Amino acid sequence: MISSYVDGNLPSDAMGVFKKMKLANEKETSITLVSLLSACTSLLNARLGESIHSQILTHGIELHVGLGTALLQMYAKCAHVEKAFHIFNIMSAKNLRSWTITISALADNGHGEEAISLLSRMEKSGLRPDSLSFSAILSACGHLDLVDKGRDLFRRMTSVHDIRPSMEHYGCMVDLLGRAGKIEEAYQVIMHMPMEPNSVILRSFISACKQHERIVPHINENLKEILHRIEPDIAANYVLAANMSSNQGNWDDADGLQTCIKEKGSKKVFGCSWVQRLI
Predict the structure, then answer these.
(1) In a domain, 276, yes or no
(2) pLDDT tens digits for range 222-265
(3) CB within 8 A of 67, min separation 6: which ones?
(4) Do 91 and 68 meet the contact criterion of CB atoms below 8 Å apart?
């Protein structure tokens, strides 16, 4: 019954059954413990997850791959990275999922160097990293300003591991290059994507242009056109486009975009570009 509730995305109900089991002094099986840990993960309830971990230790239950991975994921999702990494290290057997969860947990919680090192360990163990592992690692490279490492990992992902880059992978590369001020290279990544970039990627690139004060008219015009085409009804995009135009000194275009913003119902106040115009 606990497994059914967890599979049905009803973690609170699963925990309710668990409490009744405890009152009836019923013992949990390994399969039940995996389901309970999954429920704790969904609820982000680390305290209850730790209680289940304590029972595993008390009763000397073997930490097989399924149970170990469930425990690992619970700690990872609750941002208890050190505990997650400890579980990973003591697991006698690991599968692709346990490696991926640990790499992502390290990368997402400010331990980028450790995540990159673990990816190398994973490759040496004979396992091939998956798409999720590379998304986490490329994101970590962006936060650590590891441009060369990020480029190398992206190349290895496609040429060595034969993983087709997703929108998220391209977004990580644009963010990585944009943060480093490599505006033209980031733009080339966008232009050579096999799919149309989404608004998240475009906004990331435009923010990088603003941060590094790199306003390139023909690039900005191209991106504004794409942004309006993929999300024509999002007022925030017109705010962004208006600020881009005003940064270029194109006040007529900015005024026209302000009219569009009013029509879309946005009440957002423009930033420093509009203030600069009034001074």
Answers:
(1) no
(2) 776 777 787 776 666 666 666 665 665 554 554 444 555 455 55
(3) 30, 33, 34, 37, 56, 61
(4) yes
